[in-house]
Amino acid sequence: MTVQIDSGSTTCAPFRRPARWFVTAHTTRFDRVDGELVEVATSVAHAKEIGTDRTACGVRAWTWRKLMDVSFPPHAGMKCRACLAALAAPHRGSDT
Ligand SMILES: [Zn+2]
Prior knowledge:
Layout: E1 22-25, E2 28-33, E3 36-41, E4 46-48, E5 65-71, H1 81-88
Antiparallel strand pairs: 1-4, 1-5, 2-3
The chain binds zinc ion (ZN).
């Protein structure tokens, strides 16, 4: 049996470094924003960082959708007040 591998040119989407605190939500949908199809939260958006299974407010979110290219807080939609407060604390919210 011969396996053929297509070695033609492929293009990959440009790599985007995930934000330290990105959006995670229980439910999402795809929506068109500025002509681009993007995933947006349809439930309350929480803040999450890579390497944890909980949101900034302490909710276990390992099965939730992770919008790693959307920084928290998102521009639109409902935002978790406890996550906003947690990131406003001096020891957590800084990206430096
Ligand atoms: Zn939260």
